[in-house]
Amino acid sequence: MTMRWTIQDDVLMRRLVLSGDITEAADFSFLGALQGAERVAIKLDGVDQINSCGVREWIHFITELSESGVPCDLERCSPAFVRQLNMISNFSGAAAVRSVVAPYYCETCGHQTSRVLELTEGQAPPAIEERVVCPKCGGEAEFDDLPGTYLAFWVSG
């Protein structure tokens, strides 16, 4: 699914909500609408996939935004986004990663669920629960990634 975006203004900041796939077809034409804002928050929990060309486009976008001097927060980073944060050292540019989505999967009923992990600068990352209660069947949903490395970008940063 092609990347979609919306921009919302509130009292404290301009909020950008991204969803879909970040690919070579991603439209980052909204950059101009973000420049001049006092602060920008980018909500990323709707990002499903990022291919190699999408990585290039994202880095170009986040670098331009960083160079504009607008403070930026990355919120609710999806598992696809977290994978890129872990592989590419400058993937967040000068933006601060504030929270990530931790994925869980229930073998019993096949339901996927998630938890948001808040990140605080200067503090250790939060512990990742390896199992949570499945909200659909009450069974046990397991963390659907590698708990020891999921937040590696934060530990090394």
Describe this structure in words.
The protein has 157 residues and is α/β, with parallel strands linked by helices. The protein has one domain: 2-Layer Sandwich (Transcription Regulator spoIIAA), CATH 3.30.750. The protein is built from 4 helices and 9 strands; from the N terminus they run E-E-H-E-H-E-H-E-E-E-E-E-H. It has helices at 31-34, 52-67, 79-87, 152-156, and strands at 4-9, 14-22, 40-50, 72-75, 96-97, 99-106, 112-118, 131-133, 140-143. Strands 1-2-3-4-5 form a 5-stranded mixed sheet. Helix 1 links the parallel strand 2 and strand 3. The longest helix has 16 residues, at 52-67. The model has no long low-confidence stretch (mean pLDDT 95).
Question: Would you kindly provide a brief summary of this structure?
Answer:
It is built from four helices and nine strands. The protein is an alpha/beta fold and 157 residues long.
Distance between the termini: 31 Å
Briefly note the structural class of the backbone.
alpha/beta
Q: Could you name the ranges where pLDDT drops below 50 across 5 or more consecutive residues?
A: none
Radius of gyration: 16 Å
N-to-C series of helices and strands: EEHEHEHEEEEEH
The level-1 CATH class: Alpha Beta
Q: What is the strand arrangement across the widest sheet?
A: 1-2-3-4-5
Tally of individual domains? 1
Average predicted local confidence, pLDDT: 95
Quaternary state, please?
single chain
| CATH architecture descriptor | 2-Layer Sandwich
Strand content: 25-35%
What percent of the residues sit in helical stretches (DSSP H or I)?
A: 10-25%
| Number of helical elements | 4
General form: globular
